[in-house]
Amino acid sequence: MNSLNAWNYARGLHDLGHGNWAWLQPDGGWGWSNAGLIVDGDQSLLVDTLFDARLTAEMLSAMTDATGLSGDDIGTLVNTHANGDHTHGNGLCRHAEIIASEASAKEMAEVDAAALKTMMDAAPGLGPSGKYLLDIFGDFDFGNVAERAPTRTFSGDLSLKVGNKSVSLIEVGPAHTAGDVLVHVPDDRIVYTGDILFIDGTPIMWAGPVSNWIAACDRIIAMDVEAIVPGHGPIASKDDVRKVQDYLRFIDREARERFEAGLSVRDAAHDIALGDYESWIDSERIAVNVDTLYREYRGDKSAPNIVGLFSLMAELRH
Q1: Can you give the pTM of this predicted structure?
Q2: For residue 282, what are the CA distances in angstroms to 29, 85, 203?
Q3: Domain 3-317 belongs in CATH node 3.60.15.10
């Protein structure tokens, strides 16, 4: 493994060795996601696309320069989950079989880029919430996306071959979203985690339960892996995975205490002192995490109030 290349958190394509690559997008904040490529001979598997077509095309061009394989040559595309910053370039891999968990495919069908574009078009008139949306999503072009739905779904685990290379898809959701998937290349000691891992950034729990996410981290820690490619942030170590677990346990403990004391989501989000986690970017995501945990404690299966949560995150950020 070319460790000098692999562990450097710089924008672009990083050679992890043995036909594995990571595409990194610092600073790993809102929308700045990572992706991966697994190659053996003329066979390839792409792990996720990016938030718009321009970013995805740039990534695919760099991958072509490195491997000789274009987007049209990619045989398999795995979406680790449904969020648009991991799916909005799918259509640039025109011939790929697109694989996602059944739960993720259902989520993708419910929220598309057109909804994001409508929201961003309205943002200038939405006051502080609109300013927040422009701050976090203003660099992305939701009018220029290449959406393409999964062509194959699964639940549980799925074993694939890329040339002679074995690849395991492991469903660990619901956690971050309804259907999170790890992509494990055991012989090469690499795992691509999607948004089960945010490194040096605040995890955001849209789905839960929190116990599933903590267990997903345990799955990663138990793996014999050298390179852990997160959904956001630099390439990680197992110590980094434990820090994500520690945050999840911390926020569960702090939210539970305030839930039992009768505090509202808003009051709890303002009240919790982040301590060691205050330096992590996008700390305002505590609003979503507390809301998801409160709904879990109540046994409430209803969808979150997305507009209200973005308003609360804007309030916390500014």
Answers
A1: 0.96
A2: 7, 16, 9
A3: yes
